[in-house]
Amino acid sequence: LARYDHISGCAGSKLIVQGGLIDDFSEKNKRRLRSVVEVFDPYSELWAQKPVHGDSPAPGVYLSASTSIHNGLYTFGGSDGKNFFNTLHRLDTNTLRWSQLSPQNADGAPMPKWACGMVSFKDSLLVIGGNRPRAGGEWTDELHVYKISEGVWSCPATTGERPPVCADLTFTAVSDKRAVLFGGHNGSQEGFTNNVFIIDFSTMNWSKLKKTGGGTWPEERANHAACCLNHGQQFPQLLVTGGLDRCFKPLSDVWILDTEIGKWRKIGILKPRAGHSLTVLQIGPDLTEVVEFGGTPGQWIGNFEKQCKVADTAILQFRLVETSDQSQWELLSVSDNKQRGSHQRIIEKFRFAVESWQQSTCNKEITQLQSEKRRVGELEEEKEKVKMELQHVQARANVLQQRLDEVERREHDNLVVQEQAIAAEQRGPSWEVNDDELEVTEEELGCGGWAKVKVAKLKVAAKCLHSQLVYDYHRRIFRREMDVAARVCHPNLLRFLGARLEGGMTILTELMPTSLRALVNRHPQQHLPLNQFLSIAIDVANALNYLHNMTPYPIIHRDLSSANVLLRPSSDGGWIAKVSDYGTANFQNLLRTGNPGNPVYTAPESRDPALQTPKMDIYSFGILLVEMYTCEFPAPEHRDELMESIDNPAILHLIRQCLNEGKDRRPSAGQLLELLQAIQ
């Protein structure tokens, strides 16, 4: 997007841009652009929008100060056209996640302002100058340091000749110990400056670069752009382009300042612009690329939103030229929006590297050998790049295949749920009420053409919270059970009828005459008939399959046991089973507690909420099968002995699958139904 007065930084070998003034400065568009950054790939010379996350700066902020430390792009201040800010934000350039820094001493922060300068050194940020929002504007020379590791602002004492009040300046670190402040203005036409001030971080001493009579010097300017060539290494030099002159017209000149000897050189002319950005992409010790982006190319009209904006992207290539008496950076080429292939770019960089090397040696044989070695290295890099791309494609294909398998599994499980629901209805509708549970009185409420409406009494089960359990924790669990029970509806889940919240908390459900635990206790050391065993197991598996396929998130019961499987006799002499008790059940994305339910039935991974999945219910189901088949309580110390007594190989194999220590190797509830039906 065309923009100016934005921020920019590096993400590896790419350029990141956000914020600034754009053509569509509506609130809706500002909020939309708050959630993305624009990324420029210098190899393909293409721009792309990437989503960002976290606590990003306010929508539509411009004239912020920014600087980079390792993988972090820090921003300070700025304005959205209505408000001014003094907040600090950090963008992780690896994950593209924003975070707002929270100082320990917020009252020690700089005033809300824009158009200030900021550099980084060691573990600190240094902010200087800017303009604060008062009538007519007020320029400042305040200097603050923010210690990142401690989260503390401070105002350090400085020595030497300190810069005067100024805004729209550039403040650029040229090494780990020094930074250069250049240009800016104080709000008046006469207030434009071309002064150079250098600060030493170790001593906090300012020094002003003196203008010599015979040397060239850039004219006064503000809202220009600057960067350091070869930061922190030998021969660091300051690059300055563009800006506004005293008449508020954009400049087109390009200057380099040798920070060691204090000498300026004018090295070229670019398109005139102001409010743009310069970002260094270091290629090698002798070759550097600088990306110039955005800005405004026209006369300043005094209206930020209506000011002309551009999205022009220029790539400036510099080479370090060493002679016997000096070393300096020379501008090799300027690429302005030309779509060159990455192969061509590699060849150019290779050619420049060879030319640079040839200037420092006259040995032709050594030059040719070095050239071949570099070419082989480039081919190896290309080979590794292709290999990595193939691996990425294969990994992506594997992910897509896994997603496809998951979708097919869910569709299959849903089909099984429907088929089993039909089968359950054929055995007896889940809504049928037994005669001994219903008492119809003679009190008549109304009469129609088809029937009379009378008052009736229905026997229900009432689960009442113990009077001594009065803490909010117990009430939250009780309410969660009601919430889960009210959301589900399946023939093999205990039907929820209502609840009482005032006084003693009570849940009302349909009445089931007995439980699986009571049934197995009536047949100690005996086998349940196989048809009853399979009927109950299939009903429980149906209930789990329904819960595990809930959308958008599966429900995990987390307390499956024989006490929570309730039974009612069926018309065919068997049993209808229904799973009850949702006190520990929860949606998978809301799990926060470990070790839920009866420890006899819980899976090994239940201690860690992050590892809890529907497969922990499958583990509990396996323990339940052991208890059903042997009619013995499946205490852990006797479990192996009980399993040895199971004489049905198919059932024993199914149990071993359910009790697999690796949760991903356990079958799903839908697969359980298929295995049980195969045994049946």
What does this structure look like?
The structure is a single chain. By secondary structure, this protein is α+β, with helices and mostly antiparallel strands. The chain folds into 3 domains: 7-360, Neuraminidase; 361-427; 428-679, Transferase(Phosphotransferase) domain 1 (Transferase(Phosphotransferase), domain 1, Orthogonal Bundle), CATH 1.10.510. The chain contains 10 helices and 38 strands. Strands 5-9-8-7-6 form a 5-stranded mixed β-sheet, with no helix packed on it. A hairpin with a 5-residue loop joins strand 12 (131-132) and strand 13. Helix 2 runs antiparallel to helix 3 (364-427), helix 3 (364-427) packs across helix 10 and helix 7 packs antiparallel against helix 9 (649-658). It is elongated and about 115 Å long. The two termini are 66 Å apart. The model is unreliable at 338-343 (pLDDT under 50).
Topology:
Blueprint: E1 7-11, E2 14-18, H1 27-34, E3 36-41, E4 46-51, E5 53-54, E6 65-69, E7 72-76, E8 88-92, E9 97-100, E10 117-121, E11 124-128, E12 131-132, E13 138-139, E14 143-147, E15 152-154, E16 159-160, E17 170-173, E18 178-182, E19 196-200, E20 205-208, E21 225-229, E22 237-241, E23 253-258, E24 263-269, E25 277-282, E26 287-293, E27 313-322, E28 327-336, H2 342-359, H3 364-427, E29 438-447, E30 452-458, E31 460-464, H4 472-487, E32 496-500, E33 506-510, E34 514-515, H5 516-521, H6 530-548, E35 555-556, E36 565-569, E37 575-579, E38 586-587, H7 615-630, H8 639-644, H9 649-658, H10 669-679
Parallel strand pairs: 5-9, 16-20
Antiparallel strand pairs: 1-2, 2-3, 3-4, 6-7, 7-8, 8-9, 10-11, 11-14, 12-13, 14-15, 17-18, 18-19, 19-20, 21-22, 22-23, 23-24, 25-26, 26-27, 27-28, 29-30, 31-33, 32-33, 34-36, 35-38, 36-37
